[in-house]
Write a structure and sequence with these properties.
32% of the residues lie in helices and 28% in strands. By secondary structure, the protein is an alpha+beta fold. It has one domain: Aminopeptidase (3-Layer(aba) Sandwich). Strands 1-2-3-4 form a 4-stranded antiparallel sheet. Strands 5-7-6 form a 3-stranded antiparallel sheet, covered by helices on one side. The longest helix has 16 residues. The two termini are 29 Å apart. InterPro entries: Acyl_CoA_acyltransferase, GNAT_dom. It comes from Rhodococcus wratislaviensis (Tsukamurella wratislaviensis). GO terms for molecular function: N-acyltransferase activity.
């Protein structure tokens, strides 16, 4: 059975999700591109705001068959003016654009097409939940081939590339920027 044949459940994170996020963020395949501190206070700082409504993003655990395997978040790019300015220097950002960040956290579930299927399912959720959103624009550091390939396989097209400040200092800041128009 393909990953697409199974539905995904997107559950808003809660503080009870924090131990799961910590474990995943410590996994080498996630830590390489999600360069996060993972102490309790750091997880609270980075993820608590979406729970409390003080941060303009939505964070979700992604479940398949009732079992969490990944994480995805979405936000309106305009809610982060500095990011909007950096992205606008590289590509056109249509008004109403959103962005997503994601990972497959369970190391036993990588390389199975789940990332692509999760992104496709989340695009459908974004269309349903945010009917005024016009596009999803996602910058991905060039070395994260699995991520930008998952976007391509999910129907995104590369619309630009260039320098953005890297999350991990081992990267030089080269990013691909992909886009999927939601109003097609």
């Amino acid at each position: 059975m393909s990953a697409d044949a199974v539905s995904f459940e997107f559950v808003h994170t809660s503080r009870e999700s924090f131990p799961q996020l910590q474990r995943w963020l410590r996994e080498p395949h996630v830590a390489r591109f999600w360069n996060h501190d993972t102490a309790d206070a750091d997880i609270e700082r980075d993820f608590g705001g979406s729970i409390d409504g003080t941060e303009p993003c939505e964070d979700f655990l992604v479940l398949r068959g009732g079992v969490p395997f990944g994480f995805i978040q979405r936000y309106r790019i305009a809610d982060y003016p500095e990011d909007l300015a950096l992205l606008t220097a590289l590509v056109e950002i249509p008004p109403g654009s959103i962005s997503i960040d994601y990972f497959v956290g369970d190391p036993g579930r990588i390389g199975q097409g789940l990332g692509t299927a999760m992104i496709r399912a989340f695009v459908d959720k974004c269309r349903a939940d945010l009917p005024d959103a016009t596009a999803i624009v996602v910058p991905v550091v060039v070395p994260n081939r699995a991520s930008w390939r998952a976007l391509e396989k999910a129907g995104f097209r590369r619309v630009g590339e260039g320098y953005l400040p890297p999350d991990n200092p081992v990267d030089d800041g080269s990013h691909y920027v992909s886009r999927l128009d939601l109003l097609e």
